[in-house]
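Hey forum,

I'm writing up a methods section and want to include a predicted complex as supplementary material. The small molecule is zinc ion. I've pasted the protein sequence and the SMILES. Can someone with a working setup run it? I'll credit the forum in the acknowledgements.
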Amino acid sequence: MIKTYLKKLWRWRILIVIALAIMTSIGTTVALANSQQVVVQANVLNIRKGPGLAYDVSAQVKQGQRLTVISKRNEWLQVRISNNQVGWVASWLVKNTEVSATSNQIATVDNNNTPIYLTNSETSTKMGLLQATKTVTILYTNGEWYQIKHNDSVAWVKRNAVHVTGTVDSSAQTEPTSTTQTTSVASTTQNVLVKTNNTHLRSEPNSKASIVTSLSANTTLSYIKTVNQWYEVKTSGGQTGYVASWIVTLQNKTASSGTTTAPKVASNLAESTIVIDPGHGGTDSGALSQGNKYEKTYTLQMANVIASRLRAAGANVILTRNGDSYVSLSGRASVSNKNSADAFISLHFDSSENEGSASGVTTYYYNKNRDSKLASSLNTQLSSLPINNRGTDFGDFEVLRDNSRPSVLLELGFINNKNDFSYIQSTTYQTEVASAIVNGLTAYFK
Ligand SMILES: [Zn+2]
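Reply by user p_vandermeer:
Happy to help. Structure tokens for the complex are below, copy them as they are.
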């Protein structure tokens, strides 16, 4: 059961969100300075034209193929497949193999109006003109040509038009899209999201430094800069310190929030990011069973079973809580927004006024355009459960209202109904629900 908070949405709040979204939509991409390679883990991996499922597939690569990483945005990697072919892949479908010791070189443009090209040929499309003293990051050398980083993509410049002036030695740097990059640039438009509980904030950028504090999963930190493989960050309480970059996620602030249009969806489950929201937690116990057992206990059990099934199917799964902790309703929605979830699924168990007077499973949606396809795909599969299916319905829930991504809230049986509760507690039922959700999402992403 979930309480509906009929909080009025303030117009100015929406405007600020939209303004922030526009301000940050220019975006910054993390340029991986060291030439890093990844190996494809999936049988067939889609290469997309941009960092997300909304972008078209431009090519496919097979398991075992090595790709060179150019940059990273959210959880997507920009990779070079061949000399002229560049695209984006989901980082959770590839495996990091090596970070070579060599660094990318920086070159300075010699003359005004130096042309840059789409491919390593003067007959290919001109991408623009660079002015003297402008610096560029060299990604790749091929004959008389350098492949360079250009905005969110790459371009080619003649080697004799520039001269090498230095190297980038940090492994992850932010590079504003339109300005010159030389050394590490602090970005105020990025956040660091903590992925696991008990992540240490340390006083220095190494694992032997003293611990400033321990952070819980889903804590958001302000990114300051990168030092070696560590991010210097600031907590919401104003503490500064360092976290290891490989255990957290760097992301753009307010990325993809503020939109109510239906985002394009993944073409397959393995490429999707799914946020599972185990209802209640901590001081919020949720509804009670007849034997005074808590709803929050079973939403977390159910979430873990679903998460492991989805992960086995290759999806990138994020839980809004991993333990018995309190997470605000808006905080749950923001996990979905910040991670650009392809689907957000909130898990609950219903409760009726009088014990045992109601039974069944309900799928709630909030925004018909955005959510109803997801709701009906899941609901169709939930019909196979041994508990009566009450169908889909509109639900004014804050976790759905504050969400900018396709989202549903599932009431997976009445916890104060003896028969429903016997199912809710059983691992068989939990597994059946997980299968229904995997099947429902598979159908949804087709
Ligand atoms: Zn609930």
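Some notes you might quote in the supplement: The radius of gyration is 24 Å. The CA atoms of residues 141 and 147 lie 6 Å apart.
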